[in-house]
Design goal:
By secondary structure, the chain is an alpha/beta fold. It has 2 domains: about 200 residues, 3-Layer(aba) Sandwich (Rossmann fold), CATH 3.40.50.2000; about 170 residues, Rossmann fold. The protein is about 45% helix and about 15% strand. It is built from 15 helices and 13 strands. The strands form 2 sheets. A 7-stranded parallel β-sheet has the order 3-2-1-4-5-6-7, with helices on both faces. It has a 6-stranded parallel β-sheet with strand order 10-9-8-11-12-13, with helices on both faces. Helix 4 runs antiparallel to helix 5 and helix 7 packs across helix 10. The longest helix has 20 residues. It is globular, with a radius of gyration of 21 Å. The N and C termini lie close together (about 10 Å).
């Protein structure tokens, strides 16, 4: 098949949705399909067999679209609409694969060109708009929800990434068209030459005997940055040798949480690295005694969870459906999204090395058995069988 794949994000970037997009187009390529991947103008060029990357035009005066809903995203989605129209007008495609909000592009265009489309549903977008505050008007939210339902109804196949999204989808469309394809662990590239976890720890000023708690990812509000820093304040009171390494986040978000750490008097115990490329991730995982996922909003499972488990390190996550649809108490510590409860979860692992190793080992076995490349490719193939 020849597939037009719409991914309304900067591509490639080492974060959730772009990683999932790369995994899906790689799977489609491996199945023998030819893919034209249409993305935003920003991001790193990558080579994927049988995949041609097309970038929409840059708009003068419009910055790179940030994570989540934004005015910049609206602008680039409009540009993507016309670019997708031109590709469909000038080339023949057997299917269109639309990620997230690009379903609103695929919905009318696929009707016009009589082309089946796949709705790749990585979140309930109407809920995302609601809790982000991007749209505050109730009538606009109802209109958006109607559009989302109409796009789901028009799609030939709906792909979800977790159980909560599957449940949300089957409330609107027949269960037979919904295919659940969970994320898989990211395979980080080799670290920079000459670097080891010990060398990186020394450069960060982490001395011998310190217990290292690591978070990787952006610092958008839904990720639970406030919960993480406030919990760190409680942890340090009882375990002053603990050091929190926060990897990622925009400059503005890093500065915000650095000030919060100063206010709590824990600056000496919190290290902010800012953005780091994927080649550094393996070193941060190796130095970690514990890995954190303090997410407080949303229903989709963070992609980092699968990667965290693959490292064999113990994980402390919030006891919310975003995590519990994959995690349980046999493979992770789950704590209420409150600073005292979350800090207790961290302290429990800091004080018990045997428990850390037991949970880490179980988690690694679990993810390798249930969420691997072969299973991912098989699920994508099954979803695409319904397009024939």
């Amino acid at each position: 098949m020849r597939i037009l794949f719409l991914a309304p994000q900067p591509f490639f970037e080492a974060r959730g949705t772009p990683i999932n997009v790369r995994n899906v187009v790689t799977a489609l390529s491996g199945l023998g399909h030819s893919v034209d991947l249409l993305v935003y103008p920003h991001g790193e060029d990558v080579e994927i067999p049988n995949v041609s990357i097309h970038r929409v035009a840059r708009v003068p005066g419009v910055k790179k679209a940030p994570i989540g809903p934004s005015k910049e995203k609206l602008v680039y989605d409009a540009v993507m609409f016309f670019h997708a129209f031109w590709l469909l007008f000038t080339r023949r495609y057997d299917a269109v694969h639309a990620v997230e909000d690009s379903a609103f592009i695929a919905w009318p265009l696929c009707w016009l060109f009589r082309t089946p489309f796949v709705f790749d549903m990585d979140s309930v977008m109407s809920d995302q708009l609601r809790y982000s505050g991007f749209i505050g008007d109730g009538m606009l939210l109802r209109l958006f929800t109607w559009m989302e339902t109409s796009a789901l109804t028009s799609a030939k196949v709906v792909i979800t990434v977790c159980q909560s999204l599957t449940e949300a989808a089957v409330k609107r469309v027949p269960a037979g068209k919904v295919h659940q394809v969970e994320d898989i662990p990211m395979e980080p590239p080799a670290p920079p030459q000459g670097y080891t976890a010990d060398r990186l720890k020394k450069e960060l000023g982490i001395g011998e005997g310190r217990l290292t708690v690591v978070y990787t990812g952006n610092l958008e509000p839904y990720q639970g940055g406030d919960l993480m820093i406030e919990s760190a304040g409680e942890v340090v009171k009882r375990e002053p040798l603990a050091v929190f390494v926060i990897v990622g986040g925009s400059e503005a978000d890093v500065e915000k949480y650095r000030r919060k750490a100063e206010t709590l008097g824990i600056s000496a115990n919190v290290i902010f690295t800012g953005h780091k490329g994927p080649e550094w991730m393996q070193l941060f995982y190796e130095m970690a005694d514990i890995l954190l996922s303090p997410r407080v909003k949303g229903t989709n499972t963070p992609l980092k969870i699968y990667t965290y488990l693959k490292t064999g390190k113990a994980v402390v996550a919030t006891d919310l459906p975003t995590h519990t649809q994959v995690l349980n108490s046999d493979i992770a510590v789950l704590a209420k999204p409150e600073k005292l409860a979350y800090s207790e979860g961290i302290l429990l692992l800091l004080k018990d090395k045997e428990l850390r190793e037991r949970l880490g080992g179980r988690g690694k076995d679990f993810v390798e058995k249930n969420f691997n490349r072969q299973m991912f490719d098989k699920k994508i193939a099954s979803a695409y069988e319904n397009l024939r």
